[in-house]
Request: fold
Amino acid sequence: MSTFFQNARVASANNGQLPPEAQPWVEKYRPKSMNEIASQEQAVQVLKKALTSNNLPHLLFYGPPGTGKTSTILALARELFGPELIRSRVLELNASDERGIQIVREKVKNFARTTVTATVDDYPCPPYKIIILDEADSMTTDAQSALRRTMETYSKTTRFCLVCNYVSRIIEPLTSRCAKFRFKPLPIEKLKERIAMVCEQEGVQIEPEATSTLIKASNGDLRKAIMFLQSGAKLHAGEKIVASSINEMAGIVPPEVMSSLTAAWYSTEYQEISKIVNEVMNAGFSAEQILSQMHDHLVTDGDLSAYKKAKISLVLGEVDLCLINGADEHLQILNLMLKAADIVTH
Amino acid sequence: MSLWADKYRPQSLDKLTYHNDLSAHLKKMAHSGDFPHMLFYGPPGAGKKTRIAAVLREIYGPGVERLKVDQRQFVTPSNRKLDLNIVSSNYHMELNPSDVGMYDRAVVQDLIKEVAQTQQIDANAKHRFKIIVINEADELSREAQAGLRRTMEKYMTNLRIILCCNSTSKIISPIRSRCLLVRVARPSEGEIDDAMQAVAKKENFSLPHELCVKIADDSDRNLRKALLTLEATKVQEPNLAQVQKIVKTDWEIEIGNIADLIIAEQNPNRVLLVRTRMYELISRCIPSSLIIKNLAFDLANKVDRRLRSGIIEHAAIYEHRLRTGNKDIFHLEAFVARVMSLIKRHQMEKNS
Ligand SMILES: Nc1ncnc2c1ncn2[C@@H]1O[C@H](COP(=O)(O)OP(=O)(O)OP(=O)(O)O)[C@@H](O)[C@H]1O
Ligand SMILES: [Mg+2]
Reply:
């Protein structure tokens, strides 16, 4: 047995204090209360009512990564029960836990069995427990079906909160039992606000242009925005963060590379096109990212006819599917480029 | 005797010879107290693993190089026992999902969480957190990736993850949202030249410039491949000044031969012949998707220009099917038959 495993003692999640410079900002700036949640007004408004009433429906949060789903439910639980009671009142099961049918049933049963009476001062402590099923879209349909019964059995004493990215992956009988909240990508204004807030607190300097790049690159994902900010701050220690480093961190393909690709649409030479594709692939750019930026270009391009744009879009869609299924990026991008060139030059 | 490609692998960030900006960037990250989860991506032979190893060393010092291999046992949800060899140092651990196959989710759930829930007590350790390096992260199943999500957040004090993969397309978006992306491009041909010359110097032989350029050119900027070719060439002909032809790997030559077979004749017998030849390649563990890809590129360079995009189109189609289907040879063969029909039709049109 290596010391890697031995030299260790059990630690609980993120316990203990890290020195401030060692703290990841994404965790440092995770909202602690409902008031700190940026945007997501609909969810916040409804959930705040739960703080004053004794009731709460089952909940379903869905939306893209880094929009505050996990943070919101944790903040709610904290405000309802306080830091102590939360341990006995809230059960979090996420995709890192084994969530087969049997196990979920067992865990829920054990957790929900004991009745709740204890309260603490300063917190509403309503008479129910909360079970958070985070990342619920990675549960099998069978496990989800089994959950239906479980939810009903314990509905007197427990509230479920399902959290996922894709609501379409949750079976209908479950979604229909929950109050649904869509977590939207954070709007530009809110992102700006949060970025400014973090910059001020951490003493980070950033070029105004880099801020807009940051906002664009994070695409409504606040976690990303904060992480890029921290990495950028380290990279430029003491100096201003510039746009190009944000782009690189976000994996964005530089404009000059994109225009070399789109310019090749006007070529009829296989060798020329395959050479450029080879360059781009050797540089390691992600095919998916290329696709998405190509799409942006296509939408705004002023030279191509609508008909040609539509035809290229069709190809983009097909290639995207293949990539998602794990097809070879080089072949796919080369094929895409040849087809696009064929459409453009005919 | 280790291969030159391994023997002369630079150990520290300072010794890496290319992408100096990136090295400097990583160095700054390594020395600041905090370190984000990272996702290294880039084509094969770009030097990702070397760079990751150098980062680990920068963070923890030479202690990370004292590696041990442990046998760990896992019980899968279906109660199967699973033995796994794990390479680790006091500070980090490496994981290759391909070693675990379909049970990667169980491994992520158990092993990584176990590590995540324990912390260093080595008081001298520079950091509270340990690092888990997951190679070939794009081979991780979606379930296994999902299993990483909360762990990456909840246990950030104790654990940082470095993922290494060829492409980010197969990494689910919530994981990408949690990682800093680090792109490692292949070195330029000039940088490959330099690296080969440096090895030649250490091995005490002189490497003629033309040969060096030839190898660099042939390697398609894959540094590992260039070094392997250099070594193989040197073994075959110790007097490099006399080398006429650089050594190519057998399978590459074979793919060239198969392309020639396809171009020379198009009929059912030929399909059959090509099929046996491809079977041999598969049995020598050449990945089918690599076969299709290289065959397509080779064919495209050899046929009439009007046939080229058709060949690439079908290579893209059949390579994709190969991923979603389960019997590789069907799709390889279908591709070959398709290409033959393209060639044949083209010839008939030309003659009529
Ligand atoms: N609406 C928000 N208000 C304030 N901070 C936010 C918000 N959304 C995201 N964040 C920031 O991003 C981090 C991650 O957010 P969170 O864990 O809630 O995302 P999530 O929606 O659960 O994402 P995933 O789908 O990837 O699990 C938080 O720690 C916080 O710093
Ligand atoms: Mg979450």
